[in-house]
Structure formats: structure tokens, C-alpha cells
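Protocol step 4 of 6: structure prediction from sequence.
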Amino acid sequence: MMNRRNLLAGMAAASVLDAAPLLAAKDAGFGNVRRIDPGLDKVIAPGAQIRRLATGFQWTEGPVWIPRENCLLFTDPPANTVHRWSACKGVEVFLRPSGLQTPVPASIREPGLNGLALDARGALIAADSGSRALVRIDLGTRRRETLVDRYEGKRFNSPNDLSIAASGAIYFTDPTYGLAEGDDSSLREVPWCGLYRLSPDGKVAVLDRDHRRPNGVALSPDGRTLYLSLSDEVQPEVLAYSLDESGMPTDRRRFLDLRAELAAGRPGLPDGIKVGPAGHVFATGPGGIHVCTPSGQVLGVIETGKAVSNSALGQNGKTLFFTSSESVAAVPLV
């Protein structure tokens, strides 16, 4: 299987940002915001600039804002590292190794943590590609524990992204990107790439096993819609699942079709996805972050000229932080 980063790259609040240390003038205006519909102005102010906060990583992923520390955590899965960014200190190493705690065998492509989220207690919940598990990490002590690493006794492939419901249930995806041989890896025990739900009582349910490349996952503000990005060059889509009161899907529909953007040679594939408090969907895909209404209308695209992997809302929803190839950047929101 082609290295995901090569495939993605080859295929076609403002005051806090101003305080970023060592921010070169050339990094103000990194990329641009392409306005498609006037409704974008209610999400991103006209003239808002993207700012690159840091660069030089292997492949940035999984950003999450930590309110109590006023900082951003983001991952570099191939480097097995989680970095911390703050306006006062810039970038520091937060966890290394972040995922796999042993020497990395040749059979593992991405040994580090990938998608990150905070649970109700403020602990870090992470999709660990290297140890092929979901883990919980105490932000103070860095102590880690495995939440789940198997479905019906079989090891997961390489958990990639996750979203936590108000109930405490965790929705997560399990493609094969972390394995050196991908779909053909001898390490595979589960024969599909699944979308799963880990309930608060520890039970795991597979919700969908029909897709080649399930990736980013996110919930609507009311918890009744689950979004899933497919990083699939054959099916570059974002799907939406209606959830019942118990958090289980009742139907599935196409939310966003990005075939035209991919055919036009725009960089990237559907990857990470986040949802704002008003229901706006920030879906990465060919060309950048597609800013959509809850009904799927694209209002605009945040572009950097390279693949964008994921995003996170921070600063009380006033800043969208995002990871793009070797960089981490941010744009102010309304």
C-alpha cells in the first residue's frame, strides 16, 4: 500500500495568534480562505488570515485544545511524538514515545498516537496506531492505560481517530494506515477496516465494516448525527449516520462528495472532521478544510496548498487550529 502521507500530498482567536512567538512575517497569510457562499462570513470573518504556528514535522495530526492549560496538543505519528503549542512558549515535546513504548519493528509504519480528544474528566483519550489500541493518558502524570485493543478477541489494525459522546461512549475508526504493509500486513487479525463504538461499560460494537479507509469521525452538537470521513481515492466522501437514543446508527447517507475536487488534482483526501457548536462541519478533503452547513452545503475551503489532516476548535470556539502536512496552523473564527 502506498504511504498515506505521500498519497495525500501527491493527490490531486486572533489575539492569541498575534501573540505567537517567533512567528515569521511570511507565515501570516499562510494559505488562504476560498469563499464559496456568503454564509461563510458567519463562520470565518472576511479577510481572516491563516497563520502557520510551527513547521518541520514529519506528518502532523490529531490536534486538540486543552482549555485549562490554554494550549494545543498535536501528534506526529511517524515520529512517535505528541507536541504542545502555546502562545507563550511555542512548541515543546509533550510525549515521546507517544504510542508504541517499545523499539519500533519494521512491521509498524506509524508508531505514535494519532487522533486525540478530552474526556469529561479532562484526561487525554487517544487512538494509538503503534500499540493498536485506544488509550487514556493523565495530562499531569503522563500515566497511560489501555481502554480497548481488541474486538471479539482479535487485535485492531491501527486505531486512527475518535470522538467522545456526552454519554462517555467513544466512536473510533480502525484502518490499516499504521501497519507497514497496510491491508496485506501479517499483523492483521480483524479482516475489515471498521467504525466502532466503545460504550461506557467497556463493550465494543462494530457499527460499519463496509469501507476501505474509514478515517475521521465526529458527532453533531446534539449527539444524534455521526460523521465519518473516507480517505478512499475511489470513494472520497463524508458519510452521516443518524443515531438513536442509545447512540446506535439507524441509517447512513452521503453528506459530502469530494470526487470533483479530487479529479481536479487538489491535494489530500477526506481525513479528519470536526463539528462546531452551531453544527458547522469542518471536513478535510481534497483542497483543504471544507466548511459546511449541517445540511452539507459547502460555504468555503481553508487551503494551504498541501493536504490537511485534521482540525480542532479552541479558544472558546474562536480559533480553528489545524494540521497540514509538516505544519500546524490556525485561523480565527467569528
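Step 5 (inspection) to follow. The first strand starts at residue 32 and ends at 35.
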